């Protein structure tokens, strides 16, 4: 089940890439609404599926472990963001004048940023399964997979516009998805081998997801004049996962 879920989470990026090929000129408004829905789904998955279970498994010092884990996860991605550009800055590159080489470099860095962020997202899904709670793990994996579809969509347009051949564009999108598969398996085996790190690992994974939502997804969805629709879309996504968790529980 872990392997199939890992392939499903990674495959969601590829599905998004295929949609991106079909609809190369998706409007910012539609993209923002879909990405906001995914942000709401991920927010619920992070809180319900990772952070609250971290408190449950943490015992006497559960709150300390959970808080430290959240900040450790956020700081880890903060360090990664020092190395690669922000996603919302990359998406906005089409409003500036660049020569061909600069444009290609920015697009490739954009894809690298998504690929690097996919690793901790995959680890979050794997840690969920390592906790032994299949329902919560599927909730987390479903939230990440939903977020990966619009992520895969936004890769395609900029790469094609930069002159990258369609075949290589698809291969790059596929690689970003495979990174998530690797992350899922890493997260699962790490927690399975050392269950003592489970509370911290859950909180760490939750912190990485909260960081991505706040630092990448929300700013991007509020950058093109669709703030109100994006906000309600996030709430819908959050409530969908809340209801799903209630029904599964």
Spell out the blueprint of helices and strands.
Elements: H1 2-22, H2 28-57, H3 62-83, H4 87-91, H5 100-130, H6 134-161, H7 166-193, H8 198-221, H9 227-248
Helix pairs in contact: 1-5, 1-6, 1-7, 2-3, 2-6, 2-8, 2-9, 3-8, 5-6, 5-7, 5-8, 6-7, 6-9
Characterization of this structure:
- This protein is an all-alpha fold and 249 residues long.
- The chain has one domain.
- The chain is built from 9 helices and no strands.
- α1 (2-22) runs parallel beside α6, α5 (100-130) packs antiparallel against α6 and α6 (134-161) packs antiparallel against α7.
- The model is unreliable at 90-98 (pLDDT under 50).
Summarize the structure.
The chain is an all-alpha fold and 249 residues long.
Q: What's the N-to-C terminus distance?
A: 19 Å
Helix content: over 70%
By helix and strand content, what is the structural category? mainly alpha
For the sheet with most strands, the description reads: none
What is the 3D shape? globular
Q: Give the H and E element order.
A: HHHHHHHHH
Taking all Cα atoms into account, the compactness measure Rg is: 17 Å
Oligomeric status: single chain
Could you report the average pLDDT, rounded to the nearest whole number?
79
Quantity of strands, as a count? 0
Range of strand content: under 5%
Figure out the total of helices. 9
The domain count comes to 1
């Amino acid at each position: 089940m872990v392997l199939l879920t890992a392939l499903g989470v990674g495959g969601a990026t590829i599905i998004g890439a295929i949609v991106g090929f079909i609809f190369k000129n998706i409007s910012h408004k539609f993209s923002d609404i879909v990405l906001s829905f995914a942000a709401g789904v991920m927010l619920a998955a992070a809180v319900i599926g990772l952070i609250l279970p971290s408190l449950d498994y943490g015992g006497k010092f559960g709150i300390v472990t959970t808080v430290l884990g959240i900040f450790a996860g956020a700081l880890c991605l903060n360090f990664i963001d020092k190395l690669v550009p922000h996603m919302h800055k990359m998406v906005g590159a089409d409003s500036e004048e660049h020569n061909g080489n600069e444009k290609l470099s920015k697009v490739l860095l954009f894809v690298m940023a998504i690929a690097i962020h996919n690793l901790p997202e995959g680890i979050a899904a794997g840690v969920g399964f390592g906790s032994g709670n299949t329902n919560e793990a599927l909730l987390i994996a479903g939230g990440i997979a939903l977020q990966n579809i619009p992520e895969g969509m936004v890769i395609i347009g900029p790469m094609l516009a930069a002159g990258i051949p369609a075949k290589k564009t698809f291969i790059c999108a596929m690689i970003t998805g495979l990174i998530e598969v690797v992350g899922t398996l890493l997260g699962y085996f790490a927690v399975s081998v050392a269950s003592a790190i489970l509370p911290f690992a859950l909180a760490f994974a939750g912190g990485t997801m909260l960081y991505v939502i706040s630092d990448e997804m929300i700013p991007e969805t509020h950058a093109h004049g669709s703030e109100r629709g994006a906000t309600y879309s996030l709430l819908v996504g959050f409530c969908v996962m809340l209801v799903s968790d209630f029904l599964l529980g």
